[in-house]
Amino acid sequence: MTENGALLRVDDLAVEFDTDEGVVHAVNGISYELNSGDSLGIVGESGCGKSVSSLAVMGLVARPAGKVSRGSIEFRGQNLLDVDGDEMRQIRGKQIAMIFQDPMSSLNPVFPVGRQIEESVRLHLGLDRQQARAKAVELLDTVGIPAPDERVKDYPHQLSGGMQQRAMIAMAISCQPDLLIADEPTTALDVTIQAQVIELLAELRRELGMAVILITHELALVAGFCDRVAVMYAGYIVEYAPVHELFARPQHPYTLGLMQAVPTITGDRSEKLSNIPGSPPDLIGLPQGCPYAPRCPYVRDACHAMVPDLADRGTGHPVRCIVDPTTGELR
Amino acid sequence: MSASVRSVPETDAQSNGHLLSVKHLVKHFPVTRGALIRRHAGWVRAVDDVSFNIEAGETLGLVGESGCGKTTTGNAVMQLEAPTSGEVVFEGKTITSLKRDEQRRARRRMQMIFQDPYGSLNPRMSVGKIIEEPMMVHKLYESRQDRRDRVQEILELVGLSRTQASRYPHEFSGGQRQRIATARSLAVEPSFIVCDEPVSALDVSIQAQIINLLQDLQQRLGVAYLFIAHDLKVVRHISHRVAVMYLGKLVEVTNSDTLYERPLHPYTRALLSAVPVADPVVEAKRERIILPGDVPSPVNPPSACRFHPRCPWAQERCKTEEPLLAETGDGHAVACHFWREIEDSGGVPPVSAAEALRGGEARGG
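^ inputs. structure came back:
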């Protein structure tokens, strides 16, 4: 319980899955730190390891196929990989909570939403039935669900997608967690509802002082929400920077490629989108060298030899690349 | 199922030179209750009096949130679902009044690309066969060899290699499959393609590839698109004009270049402000228009202006009198009673984002 230490310190975390085709190297040694109240964005495309790395933090990597093969996850100074199942259950939901992309499949369809929130507060906070009901109503109100004393009796299917996600958020914050992991929380929602949910998360983060990890494929979403951003590709963090720094001076060719591949709402329409050729690598037989090399416009011979380090170079903006894309020269 | 009240077109060739002209298109689906004895319980007003034109070689973007009727509009234009009423005039022919086989012939020049590149390709057919099939259906080429040559040509056109004709869909990635679907649609030399969310199932780096491909093909072949999507950024980028749809109605039609600079309808304003911008400096300064509540159900849509329950500028008149889509000049059209007043006031909503967040309704309709 170090008060001045980091809330969460992930060090050299690697996760792999055994499949019939071979070992899938989903996460290949990622490290990051999060202080209380911080918000970190983890950005990348499908299969980059952004979700799996966070499931590992929650102790939810599906066994026996999946396993954390190395590294450590320190939460309040305690390595979560060493704690047993019972202890982990105490931490999960109470101190670290998670919300997922699809609220409908995360909620139990046969119980009213209120009862599902009550379950968590009775378990973790030791409230009795009546207190738990009052707490559930209060929580639904906090997340902006109107007429919460009525809605508390609703089944998940009676709520819209946006309301379901709010109910999930209510459940997640029920025990005032120190850390909330939001895995693509708005991807299944419409844009105007996405704006509501992101606004709500930002507000709750301020009010409750909880740290948030926002996992998303959409770079623009982290721009308004996060303090720091980690960009992931093929199970590696390829760039890690404060949000202003990342958008002002993107340093990794992949980050740059992502930024230029997405049309902007204000951009010049006559300009063609620059696309990233090819597709992401197969995580089973990752080739030696930088995993982005086959798609990279700045590729050098040296890139195929080994994976470059996530090197800081004294800028506070570590990048896993040997070429500086702004000049095209070696760093 | 439903009694179709189809208006009889006076003459053919009412298109006034437009490639495609959609007039007062209506599509209602019946809602039934009961398992054994089905009772009619109402109508889903999926598309309600929608009119627009598309010129040759042009892209019209159709944007809106789930359930707004954009996909149904696309299907009704293609005659995949018979419209309840209204007319679709394509290349001078009123296809809504044609007989089935005539419709099929007319439809050769109209094709469609779907959202799901996994579900829209037959897994048992080789890619070559998939592309060849529409040519056989429409009896386009005399000999098999001609068709095969054409398949190879089209494969190269969409950025695949000739040798891939013998492979099967499961051997391809999502982006490549969308190229195959595009190739299939091009096989019969259409002048118009309905693209229904063609990139929304793809990763961002792959999205750009398909968007660029569609733009390239338009330049080379002069094909027109109805580009249906929920992502305003993508729609604005690829379209010449954008039509914004809400609960079965078009609320604004405008030039893509003026869409961001001068949105007029409150819903368009809210949509634009909800799109995150990839710039933390801009994001910190932005005042969001947060709409309260959810999109109401199209079964019993709100009276008059369907947007009024969520509109920060709504007034009494909006609840009683439906605003019609009216030209404001320069091809810009909007369906709002108060667009002038809103524009004059600088477009700042009278309700703050925080208030809107708390003022939501649990369920619409």
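Chain A has eleven helices and twelve strands. The two ends of chain A are 40 Å apart (CA to CA).
thumbs up if we can close this ticket
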